[in-house]
Amino acid sequence: MRISILLILLLFSAFSQKAERDPRLVGKWMMLFSKDANGEIRKDEFYGKRYVETYTKDGKLVLDPQFLRDDLKRNGITDPLDYSLIPTLSWKTVNNETIEISTSEGNQQNRYGFSGDTLIFGYSNGNTRYLLRVK
């Protein structure tokens, strides 16, 4: 009986924990550039656009609407951006080294770290992305 109560309490605490969020991520970040797996700067259609991503204290991730417009154009969609179709993104961190981005379609985990005021994301394909804190 005592073991089953302990097990129930452990399960309850595991499912009721608040999402961990590294406070260093909270704020606005401007995209600087991306590098491919070979360390070469990717000069694609997003290079130099200075898109801003916002990470809120309550775990929302807000993408730059211009990035969304440019991504639609890249995929051949020229219709105006329907703001009601912008996905709701949320974020949390694990051990201050992994970020998990959640959407209605699933989750994605990436490594992250900092170098001064630069945020660096590392992806499973070897690419990295560099963002500068906006003051």
Could you please describe the fold and organization of this structure?
The structure is a single chain. This protein has 135 residues and is an alpha+beta fold. The chain has one domain (19-133): Lipocalin (Beta Barrel). Helix content is 19%, strand content 36%. It contains 2 helices and 8 strands. It has helices at residues 2-16, 65-74, and strands at 27-35, 52-55, 60-62, 89-94, 98-103, 106-115, 118-122, 128-133. It has an 8-stranded antiparallel β-barrel with strand order 1-2-3-4-5-6-7-8. A hairpin with a 4-residue loop joins strand 2 and strand 3. It is globular, with a radius of gyration of 18 Å. Residues 4-17 have low confidence and may be disordered.
